[in-house]
Design brief:
Helix content: 25-40%
Number of helices: 12
Number of strands: 9
Order of helices and strands: HHEHEHHEHEHEHHEEHHHEE
Largest sheet: 7 strands, mixed
Strand content: 15-25%
CATH superfamily of the domain at 21-175 and 199-227 and 276-286: Vaccinia Virus protein VP39
CATH architecture of the domain at 21-175 and 199-227 and 276-286: 3-Layer(aba) Sandwich
CATH class of the domain at 21-175 and 199-227 and 276-286: Alpha Beta
Length: about 290
């Protein structure tokens, strides 16, 4: 899947859309996206993100990570070409009237690729001091495809030695959600290798960084539990990731909803909430 917690797997091009993409984007921003807040906070704290930071977010989605960086005083630019619906929500978050003209002037959201960032401004801008690709890879076959190209396109926009942050799923034994994601693989067309669940590998992030010409310079792990108010919220949140779209295309929405709900049953607590502990990993690499 092209870079967007979380790559979306769409039906064949000749099939009619089978999901409401606007509703899906809203579920992502209201339910699922916050699950990665500990990851964002840990990275920003480690890299001392603040008023002197110029951040370029690749696959920025609905913009929560950018909003958190902006609240620290960073100047942020988000790039996303895979979900106009999520990007529209990012605009609502990051470009409201309440921010004031000064704050809005430094915030940019680009529907496209890193190459389009310069074109969008119409003028040369200072180099970025931090590049992030927070959408986790490493749980689906082929989910890193395209990320290397995005990173290579972003490097000319960043200053030499600038940190580039990649994120990935942790070991399956430390990610409860891995067992639920197997439902998507079992229901999806077995002929589609891309999008099939696979165990996260230790060097997934390093391999992507090295292919892009980046120099690894540290890593870490962060606990990011997936917690939901009830089973319905859990189903909606997980579906919003796009990780189950291939299963929906191969079967139908009702079947996926039913089997996803059953897979979540072991993680439903007595009060009806759903709790799935997970560990995510991040890599800090440097622009040569």
């Amino acid at each position: 899947m092209t870079p967007t917690l979380v790559r979306r797997h769409l039906p064949h091009e000749d099939e009619a859309p089978r999901v409401d993409l606007c509703a899906r984007a809203r579920d992502w921003s209201e339910i699922q996206e916050r699950m990665l807040v500990p990851l964002y906070e840990t990275v920003y704290e480690r890299l001392e993100v603040g008023p002197g930071t110029r951040l370029l977010g690749l696959g920025c989605g609905s913009g929560l990570a950018l909003l958190m960086a902006a609240s620290r005083g960073a100047t942020v630019t988000g790039v996303d070409h895979s979900s106009p619906e999520r990007l529209a929500l990012a605009r609502e978050r990051l470009l409201p009237d309440t921010w004031g003209a000064r704050a809005r002037a430094g915030t940019r959201l680009v529907d496209g690729s890193p190459e389009d960032v310069g074109n969008a401004s119409g003028a040369e801008t200072p180099a970025y001091t931090l590049v992030t690709a927070f959408e986790p890879i490493g749980c689906l076959a082929g989910d890193s495809e395209g990320l290397g190209g995005l990173l290579q396109a972003a490097m000319p926009l960043a200053e030499r030695g600038a940190p580039v942050v990649l994120a990935g799923w942790g070991p399956p034994e430390r990610c409860t959600t891995s067992s639920v994601l197997r439902v998507a693989t079992r229901l999806a067309d077995p002929l589609r290798s891309a999008g099939s669940w696979r165990p996260a590998l230790r060097d997934d992030l390093e391999e992507v960084a090295q292919r892009a010409g980046l120099r690894p310079d540290g890593s870490g792990r962060v606990a990011c539990p997936f917690g939901y108010a009830d089973g319905d919220s859990a189903v909606r949140g997980l579906l919003s990731t796009g990780l189950f779209d291939a299963a929906v295309a191969a079967t139908d929405q009702a079947q996926v909803d039913k089997e996803l709900s059953e897979a979540l049953h072991p993680y439903v607590r007595r009060d009806g909430t759903v709790w799935m502990p997970n560990v995510f990993r991040y890599l800090i690499a440097r622009v040569p």
